[in-house]
Amino acid sequence: QVDSPMNLRNPHDLVILMRQETTVNYLKELEKQLVAQKIHIEENEDRDTGLEQRHNKEDPDCIKAKVPLGDLDLYDGTYITLESKDIRPEDYIDTKSPVPPDLQQPDCTKVLDLPYSIHAFQHLRGVQERVNLSAPLLPKEDPIFTYLSRRLGRSIEEIGHRIYDGLMKNSSSWVLYNMASFYWRIKNEPYQVVECAMRALHFSSRQNKDIALVNLANILHRAHFSADAAIVVHAALDYSDFFTSYYTLGNIYAMLGEYNHSVLCYDHALQAKPGFEQAVKRKHAVLCQQKLEQKLEAQHRSLQRTLNELKEYQKQHDHYLRQQDVLDKYKLIQEEQILRNIIHETQMAKEAQLGNHQICRLGNQQHSLHCQWDQPVRYHRGDIFENVEYVQFGEDSSTSSMTSVNLDLHANQSDQSQSLQSSPVARSIVSVWSVESNRDKQHILWPQRSECMKSFPKIPDPEELPTYFLPPENRGFRQVVQPILSIPRDTVGHGEAQAPDCSSITDARNNESLYMLVKQLDSNLDLKFKMPDDQARQVLQSRINNQTIITQAKIGAFLDHAMRKLEDPLWLVLNEAGLYWRAVGNSTFAITCLQKAFNLAPHEYQDIPLVNLANLLIHYGLHLDASRLLLKALAINASEPLTFLSLGNAYLALNNISGALQAFRHALDLTTTCSECESSLKMIRCLQFYPFLYNTTSSVCSG
């Protein structure tokens, strides 16, 4: 090979050669992992950059809200009027007496010293730090500006002076303290509002406390003590005005990000005042924001997962490069390898005339080609090979890359007999599998190309491929299985119509990966349909030792009876029950029986239920899952030809032709008796020796 990692600087160093081989194999596996990891990352990467804009345009709540939640004023001022308590403010102040030039303000701290009050919520941090409360600028449209009527005074300053006069005459009036709170809210002085509200709470009756509580909550909310404000409004809910309190609480919870509570409060407010536009708009804006944040959080988790996977990929890639450097350290430089390759090709051309790996000879009438070794033959087109139908190798095994060779016909024919005498004994594969063949065909390849074109014009469709049943008798259980399958005549005539129920059998999960695979199969819709397996039915009938022809229902009743006996190994009975349900076409029951047979079987025999479960999946067209189970079975036992045959069929259905041929070749290499191999032999050999008929010379695994 040109640029081979096995072409070393020091070719005599055996230890380095062995290490290179290990490193090459390791790098191949690592490269597969890196490619699979990169594909996984690219397929699962979240590339949605316009999530927020699309959400705002398409979500029904966003459309109804018209504007995002962030553009709404969640500090919208609210208050409860004194008139709602049947109180006229002008009855508590003197509106007719003249006012002096130097107007006073209603400073509640100077009117009454209140060190502590149990009603004033002084345990809240916002109330404790009232001196430092922030005062964001009030918008001109804040409703509080319209409350204190001009009939109380010509200006807000005059109204404040008249409130001051009223407090000086009556320092325990909760009405005047609330009016003072309104005054200071208009003046945007949060400290004074809190002080006046505390005194109003101190002197208010229980049913009138909500006025001061809503005033206090508005100030705390605007000062970013929204959690304290929520506590205060909840206290106000115990007294009166549900609409104002719930609407205020909805704004507070929306600011806190408690969207579920916010929507609930807006709903209560709309029950009290249906159709209130501000509550409707805010409710939909909150729902819009809530769903957007959920989508953004999911996207963030996805991106974080992708980032972690990229870090791991980069780590593995760096490790791959380091191993590649180790490989290149001992490898011959490429220029030197190319030079050696040219020398090698020149020598081969001298020895084999046209640069062939071996000299192959045309047989009589140019219908057969004889090659000494079972190895690839270099392709060369020419009219001389158009009629070649047989290719004979010195050994039984063959190659799928076999093609014709351009040779000097006369030179080859002249010493044909001498070469055959010195070559390995030619044996046809048909003799290995006890297929009768006459002496003339002992030295040619079977079957002929014309036979393959007639019998298999194309690769069989997946549904045309056979399914198999791996019998426990292959592993020495004949004496145990025969009594199980021997149905007494009284059972045949009078058996209960009870099918074998494997779900009642207690087992222990001993293979997590198989358990997860079976769990995934439960959700596969294809397995929900009833698909009787005729091949399984024929096997089931043939395994019954009693010669009396009985129905499947009778067989099921007998297997149910056998399952209840204690003397038989239970996993063998479950294996037969799985075959029964395969024949009936109930995949769910069949999977249950075979899974429990796997769990109860000794480890060295667990491949038997695995192979039978895989053939059930092949019958349902789940070839990729079946191939995984078959590989697990081969890891347990690789001496069963049926396992390799089943794997070859699964690979054929997945269009993995090279993998299928390799599996079939393993099946043929085994010396175990295999009647199913004989029935499939013709198709296998056609695929192996005439790949150009099926366009398989460059097949790629699509799975």
TrEMBL record:
<dbReference type="InterPro" id="IPR052630">
    <property type="entry name" value="TTC17"/>
</dbReference>
<dbReference type="InterPro" id="IPR019734">
    <property type="entry name" value="TPR_rpt"/>
</dbReference>
<keyword id="KW-0802">TPR repeat</keyword>
<protein>
    <submittedName>
        <fullName>TTC17 protein</fullName>
    </submittedName>
</protein>
<dbReference type="InterPro" id="IPR011990">
    <property type="entry name" value="TPR-like_helical_dom_sf"/>
</dbReference>
<feature type="coiled-coil region">
    <location>
        <begin position="289"/>
        <end position="323"/>
    </location>
</feature>
<dbReference type="GO" id="GO:0030041">
    <property type="term" value="P:actin filament polymerization"/>
</dbReference>
<dbReference type="Pfam" id="PF13181">
    <property type="entry name" value="TPR_8"/>
</dbReference>
<feature type="repeat" description="TPR">
    <location>
        <begin position="641"/>
        <end position="674"/>
    </location>
</feature>
<keyword id="KW-0175">Coiled coil</keyword>
<dbReference type="GO" id="GO:0044782">
    <property type="term" value="P:cilium organization"/>
</dbReference>
<dbReference type="GO" id="GO:0015629">
    <property type="term" value="C:actin cytoskeleton"/>
</dbReference>
<feature type="repeat" description="TPR">
    <location>
        <begin position="243"/>
        <end position="276"/>
    </location>
</feature>
<dbReference type="GO" id="GO:0005737">
    <property type="term" value="C:cytoplasm"/>
</dbReference>
